[in-house]
Amino acid sequence: MSRQNRIEAALTERFQPERLMVINESHLHAGHHNSDSGDDGSFDGTGETHFRIRIIAAAFAGMNRLERHRAVNALLKDELESGLHAMAVEASAPGEATRW
Amino acid sequence: MSGIHDFIENEVKTNDVVVFMKGTPQFPQCGFSGQVVQILDYLGVAYKGINVLADDALRDGIKQYSNWPTIPQIYVKGEFIGGCDIVREMFQSNELQQHMTDAGIPVKAA
Question: What CATH number did the domain enclosing B90 receive?
Fold first, then answer.
């Protein structure tokens, strides 16, 4: 199962989102510096290193931004420790204005 | 580890605004760090940029200190604010400007 599928499955199970988009943006970071692959290393853009997560779930109501991010970060801890380099998170509660 | 912990704690407690970032404010080496620099520069806020790429122990240490898995990380008056997404969202909704003002940190008028 791809990292993208694992992320989608984990978010779906944990938050039961009304809407969910997990977007692989790794290609946008091709050529960017990556010290994980040596001092002069860079991302080749073909992997699953950078994702954007857009999620609307009732679970986020009553949580501030930091708490929402921490909840997503905690859920995806294993991914972050195994090569998921960056994660943009747009987490909303139902009824909040979104741009997607 | 405690050495790094003490170093970080000292930095966030003795500087009003600290950005733990990849590269420097003059030369960010990551787009997310660069966005935070641009926002703070736009607001005319004085801050200290600390390059985590200069020290592996610091790079790991700040993630543990904040319990936050990614860089950049922003502290205001010793309080963890968040990473790039949160800073940008707060900036766009004017909350960042308000937060700085409430903390007694001068912000350039828009």
Answer: 3.40.30.10
Residue B1 has pLDDT above 90, yes or no: no
Domains in chain A (CATH in brackets) are 3-92 (3.30.300.90)
Contact B80/A66, CB-based, under 8 Å? Answer: yes
Interface of A with B (CB under 8 A): 29, 32-33, 35, 65-66, 69-70, 73, 77, 80-81, 86-90
User: Does residue B79 lie within any of the structural domains?
Assistant: yes
Contacts of A73 in chain B (CB under 8 A): 68-69
- pTM for the whole thing? 0.89
- Count, in order, helices (H) and strands (E) of chain B: 5, 4
Strand order in the sheet with B79-82: B48-51, B17-21, B73-76, B79-82
* ipTM surpasses 0.95: no
